[in-house]
Amino acid sequence: MKWKYALPAVPAAGIAGLAAYDLTQKHHALLRNFPVLGHMRYILETIGPELRQYIITGNDEERPFSRNQRRWIYASSKLQNNYFGFGTDNNTEYTDGYPIIKHRTFSDVAPATASHAGEGAAIPSAKVIGEHRKRTKAFRPTSVVNISAMSYGSLSGAAIEALNRGAAEAGCMHNTGEGGLSPHHRKGADLILQIGTSYFGCRDKAGRFDLEKLKDVVASAPVKALEIKLSQGAKPGLGGLLPAAKVTPEIAAIRGIEPGVDCASPSRHAEFHGVDSMLDWVELLAAETGVPVGIKSAVGNLDFWEQLVAQMSTTQRGVDFITVDGGEGGTGAAPLIFSESVSLPFRVGFTRAYSIFARAGIAEQVTFIGSGKLGLPANAVVAFALGCDLVNVAREAMMSIGCIQAQKCHTDKCPTGIATQDEWLAHGLDPSIKSERAANYVRTLRRDLLKVSEACGVSHPGLITADDLDLLNGQESAALLRDVYKYEPGWGQPSAADREEITRLMCGAPKGGSVAPSVTATV
């Protein structure tokens, strides 16, 4: 009977102790004025993102990804019904810049009506990366949708493994991110090896770039290309930071750094200091490894792009591909000012950079890759119409393996075990199951891109033109995508030869023999 009365006293004592602490501490006025109850404010602040996305906001309001967008990704990754009923939730009549894809009434190409039709199509790139500069290992990417750069360290080993296995299953490439090539990247997918300013995985003990180490890494894995990271949309112009809590002994060994210490990357490369020396380095890497070499950058000041085009137009040096990252921010945690206000959003940034290449007549020599919330079909279609040859997906791929947009990437407390090095949190993510969901998502995105391409009367998303889309100006009017971004006729399209070849590949027409549309080979 004594316990009957003693038990209620335990929580009462705890509350009394908390109240006493609140009343005596001086760091938080709210808690001194409202002891115990004041903690509710901090609890609500902590779970605010979850409350907003599930209770408060409408289906198309939550950012960075709305509930409808997340639902489409989740359903696609699980091969569930990803259709939507009763019309759009989007406020199309009152949203400036809303893209409208214009289907054709009559065409020789038409989409199949079966819901899963097209999921088996890999949709190869219309361009061969490295072909123009005759790289030894030039290749045609087998998929126009690929997994974007996310380092092991920022993401858990289980998450990297799930994405890599999923990429292998879907037949697409996986970008390693700047954190080096880890064992979790070696699960079957073709790789783009990213080289950042700290040269992780290819540096000596002093932190300087080591060419021999790079060659060893490239030879040890299915590395198809090298990507030199100049900047990224989440924090353009700012070096990366991996908090000490995430720098495990394994990550430290892969990166060549000290474990348990904040890992800060510089904002600029030490191997080159301008466009001229950068292109010398690009050609060195290509010659020594044989693989195509490209760059990744957000778009800000246009001097760099104008100098790059000038050098590529007048010398024999050049990059094989360019990944343009939107300033909307991505998987990387960043200071608020950088994620919200530094560098141009994707559409504006990409079109400014692309236009410089197109005006000089060399856009067809480069494979353009877009990234920045392009893992949603409508956004990807706009990117292809503007001149992208491939799209990279990051946050959408994270959602396909379980991300719930908790926005705790920078805390090491990701509740789904994706953006964390906490062993307990990461153990909940099963790569064998999540890899299937990543593959399903990529296949479904490609399926939708193929269907909408065929609705526009073409057999490949890279053949959609800037005339095939309008951007709405509320209810008043609509303007051609071409006119909005001042594109000249022919801009945003592969060369005539590339258009002919990709049409042949997609339609299966023979050229000296039969070919399978989804099979591509190194040239």
From TrEMBL:
Source organism, top-level taxon: Bacteria
GO BP: any one term: glutamate biosynthetic process
Gene Ontology terms, MF aspect: glutamate synthase activity
Alphabetized PANTHER family for the sequence: ARCHAEAL-TYPE GLUTAMATE SYNTHASE [NADPH]
All copies of domain Glutamate synthase, residue ranges: 135-458
Pfam families the record matches: Glu_synthase
Stored InterPro entries: Aldolase_TIM, GltB, Glu_synthdom
Family of this protein: Belongs to the glutamate synthase family.
Name by which UniProt lists this protein: FMN-binding glutamate synthase family protein
Species this chain originates from: Antrihabitans cavernicola
